[in-house]
Design goal:
single chain; alpha/beta; 3 domains; five-stranded mixed β-sheet; 19 helices; 7 strands; elongated; HARBI1_dom
Amino acid sequence: MDSPVPSASSSQEREGMLFFLVFAITQWVHRCNAAAMAVLEAVAFAPFLSGDAATSLPLLAGGVMHGFALASLAAEELGRRMERRRRIWVVERSGGVWRDLQRVGREHDKVFVRFCRLPRPLFFEVLGRIAPHIPRAPTNFRNPIPAGQKFAMALIRWVTGGYYRQTSHGMGMGLASALRCNEEVADAIISEYGHLLRWPTGPRMQEVANAFEAKGFAGCIGAIDGTHLYIDKPKGVRGECYYHHTGQFSVVAQVVCDHECRITSVYVGCPGSVHDSRVLRISELFRQVSQGAGVFSEGDAHLHDGRHVGRYVLGDQGYPLLPWIMTPVGRTATTAQERTYDSCHSSVRSCIERRFGRLKAVWRNFIRPHISNMKTICKEVMAICILHNLMIEHRVDFDPGVLDSSSDSDGDGGHRRRRRRRRDGRRFVRHMPNLNVEPMVDDDPTNGSALGELVRRSLIEHVDHHVAVHGAPPPCPWR
């Protein structure tokens, strides 16, 4: 029996469906790849030439595949060009130290503290507050450096005092980024935690006063002293102004701390050749006292004989004797009462000396000479003092091995330091007659006062009575 012959209507229907399919594929390819349209337009004339739409399907498929091949080659070439352009802007670094700091575990936590000094919980607590102050917008060539990486970079720089190039390479960032990290992180810390460098108030102030009064100094609220931050010879300024008598260049930092070694006042930026009394005279603390403002104009204390004294701080003989700065009698002490006062004064004031020792042992960037920008060193010192108070507030203790000076030494650095100390000692003796002496005029308010002498005479009698009743304080009463 003969097979059925397809009708003309069914043939036309198949031709219409095939045309619709070809039209849809053509539009889709046109949207995805304009390069393949040239081939498809040529294929579109095939039905008119051959008269059979079925024979044009292989040509149509070949055109689509050819378009995909062209698109793949173009994308691959574009990727290679973008990769070459990106490497011009950003050098790929391994960032091994930064990856190691992100590891979690008991032993890794010890490594984290050794590099950053802050325990991991305190690190992330501080990071959560300063991160909004150090953002960076992404660019076409790279993503911004994470805030945690910048924070860790600044801490490691302050902890080790190493070269920027070495530290930045270990942290997986460029030299310019590392230089910006110090200032950005310091500004963020000061902005968020600047209130920690203020005098205590209310019950906290009374607690500080009671602690010093228990050692025989009623009315005392802290100890004041200055320390030198050694730097290389600064550029763009008069280098001789920063020359210290030890033979190095330095910047002076004036610090006041309480009985728990919390820093309450900081003034930094004076050249190393400036005397302590001159630093005091130009500091913000002296300006407030001269205007009758601040904590020294509030409150008083009672001595054993009923006399009143105002608030004051303890300073060494480099400071003038003022009603709010009590200095030791020194070499002119002739009576037993004066010698007892000097002994107790040295014992109680030891908190500021130990504070400097602990501060420079933890943050070694300020114990060794280093290249520093004079515009940022003040911010860095302020940030370090804030972090120091945060560590006291969170009761962060360090393993003696972490604070061992030999743990981060560079080769024969110990021998060089000992040799430099011997050389500096000889230089110190040779220049002793001209040791940071500034001529004082008679009307200089920082050249001592009669009222300060009267207050100290009253304190000498009070301390002698306190020692007779309660005994002398130990050499380090706050340990």
